[in-house]
Amino acid sequence: MNVFDCDGVITVGIYPSKNDIIITGRSYEEKPETVKMLKRKGIDNTVFFNPLSFKSKTRKSSGEHKAITLNILKERGIDIELMFEDDPIQWEIIEEKCSWVKIVKIVHDITEKENVKHIED
Questions:
Q1: Mean pLDDT of 25-43
Q2: pLDDT at residue 63 in the model
Q3: Are 5 and 15 spatial neighbours (Cβ–Cβ below 8 Å)?
């Protein structure tokens, strides 16, 4: 099973397979528009949202959320092969806290990395 970030990965056309998981830095407050965007793309995978409010989340806290979630999945016996991530701040946190995960580092300047509202329509 592989894990995908949303912004900068899925939003640029790198899609998960049926049984893969999405761990996004997007806040739980952004769930409605995120689910709508994913469904438009034909993606119906499990999504783990950042538990922080939109105003509280940062790139660092999003990386922490992803690392915590990856470790919980590992503890539950879920074998993660690859993590697709485009944010260097976040992949460094994941590398530090989840050294067992192989990260596919997607490098581009297509999407904003800072905390922005996502207008999907």
A1: 95
A2: 97
A3: no
Q: For residue 28, what pLDDT is reported?
A: 96
Position 120 scores a pLDDT of: 53
Per-residue burial over 13-38, b if 16 or more Cβ lie within 10 Å, else e, is eebbeeebbbbbbbbebbeeebeebb
Calculate the alpha carbon distances from 60 to 9, 12, 55, 111 in Å.
18, 22, 13, 17
- 110 pLDDT exceeds 80? no
Measure the CA–CA gap between 13 and 28, rounded to whole angstroms. Answer: 22
pLDDT at res. 89? 95
One DSSP character per residue, 63-74 reads HHHHHHHHHHHH
DSSP secondary structure letters along 55-107: TT--HHHHHHHHHHHHHHHHHTT----EEEE--HHHHHHHHHH-TTSEEEE--
Domain ranges for the chain, please list them.
3-105
Q: Which helix (H) or strand (E) holds 40?
A: helix 31-40
